Every structure is written in structure tokens, then in C-alpha cells.
Amino acid sequence: MNHLHRIIFYVFGAACALLFWGCNTTYEMEVDAIQNPTIQDADSYVIVPRDPEQDVNDLRYKETVSYIKTALSGKGMYEAIDAQEADMVIEIDYGMEPPRREMKVVEEPVFATIQEPDTYQTVSQQDPKTGRVVTYTVRIPGRRSRELIGYQERLVAVIINEKYMELTAKENMLDAVSSDVPAQEIWSVRVRNYDENDDLREYLPIMAASVADYVGEDTGTNQKVRLKNNDEVVEFIKRGIIADRPLDSKIPTESISENQLGEDTSI
Predict the structure, then answer these.
(1) In the 8-state DSSP scheme, what is residue 42?
(2) What is the CATH number of domain 26-102+158-261?
(3) Could you give the CA distance from residue 148 to residue 105 in angstroms, rounded to a whole number?
């Protein structure tokens, strides 16, 4: 193998190793979900940003909405053609909190040098001058190796970046002329991740995949969810496969205009 071929081989191997590592990264999410048992059969929806100043034409927002729609399709939910006819209005919020410093206990491997005992070997050798056979003992030093003998805990300071995604479904009151009665909440799902990674975009499909299993459920307490990039539900979210809709829902609306929202934005 010439020098050029060796370089190509090593580069290809490194790329494969990085790809394998990325596919096997484990993301740990914390999910909290609640649902209102008095409201059933709410399947059609429209999506609005929780923040009224959110630019719905922002590419990151559109990408996030696409992931969420795919997650909801897995629960048999679909986007309504007419915002006024939707069963529910889903407010979405996502982002990353300001980084904070925390103390974390980490485990570090402890290695020790292991010296194996010396061994002795009997060697016979003929003297070329006298022809006599001389026998003597040779000491062979024991092999020395560095081996893992355990782990020790150490307290270190780390920077934590909290990523989040929240979906809250409420009764559709977009067609209400005026009402002092607030819309009832149908269900809500909140996903959190706490680690050192500050790449929010990398986590958006993972958080949407975490939402998929808990829409319309009641977790009671926070649930720990661990997902990998190559998990089936994550690949489904990334592909953006939208489940079949009813015949009257062929063309989904992209967003709700300010006129549709009306004056009362506290849906």
C-alpha cells in the first residue's frame, strides 16, 4: 500500500468512525405530559407560535413546525384546512435557556501498572572449543502492562445548556366573537434536555420524537426518554412523513393570519 492509499484509507476510516459515533449518540430527554379527560376526539388542529412576535416565515420555525406535524400525524392528528373549523389550536414554543454552570460528578478510569512475575528458563549450549555442554538458567523479566483497575469520582464544573420544546393544545375559539371564558386546555407536552451541547437544531427532531409518544397522555411525573439518531421514531420525524388525512383535508394551511387570530390572542 503506497503513501497516498494509506492516507485515503485512514481518512475513510476516520469518517466512518465519526458517522458511527453520530448515529449512536444517546440523547436523554425529560418529558412531562398532561391531558384533560373531559375533552375527547380532538383530531384536527392549527399551529400557532406561543410568542406573538415569532416570525412564522423564519426557516428554523418552519423546520420545527414540520417536525411537530410529523409527530402529530403519528397520533392520527391532522392539520385543518380552515382554521375556524379546527378542533384545537396548538401553541408551540421551543428554544434554549441561557447557559448555566453546574457542578457534576464524573467517573474517571483508574489505571495501574501491572508487573507480572519473572520466569526462569534452563538453557543448554555446547562450547565450540571443548565440546562440553554447558547448562545455565536465564531470568526472563515479567511482562509489564497498564490495566484498568476501577473508577473514581471527581467533581467538575460544566456548562449546561437547557433545550426545550412545549406544545399546548386548547379548544379552538378562533370563531368566538367575544368571550370572557378562556379556552380549555386539552393536552400539553413539555420536553427538556440538559447537557453541554449548544446546538439547538440538532435536538429539534429528537425533542419532536419525544413528543410523539406522549401527546394526549398523562405522565403523572417527569419521564426519562433516551433516543438515538437511528431510532425508528427519530428517522420517521426526520423524513417528515405525514399520515393520510381525511378527504376534506387535502391542502393544509401553513399558518394562521393575524386576522384569524382576532384580538384575543390568549387562546
Answers:
(1) -
(2) 3.30.160
(3) 20
